[in-house]
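Q: Convert this sequence to structure tokens.
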Amino acid sequence: MNTDITSDDKLWAALGYPIFPIALIMLLMDEKKNRPFIKFHAVQALALNVGIWVVEILLAILSAILAAVTFGIGGLISCIAPIVWLLLIWPAVLAYQGKYFEVPVVTKFLRDQHWIA
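A:
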């Protein structure tokens, strides 16, 4: 799609998904935030991480409620939490391949807010 995507751009974009502070750093560094590929993935990675944090909090609340009601057995739902974080590996792989891609709800929201092009 874009021929000026460097291997450095791909690496930074890929690392921003599983390690969200890197996405923040990309948006604070002038030489990084001015690169369209990096900016797109940094903003999308941050939004995706926020969404995953919300899911994690909801899972923790649900797990606590179910554990109280089922005398501890319902707490096993907390085992799902680490699996949710594994979902960040796929976007990282796609970013490392130099691809722009859409995360169904997240990318549309970001475009509607004009945070990404």
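Helices lie at 7-16, 20-28, 30-33, 36-69, 81-86, 89-96, 104-112.
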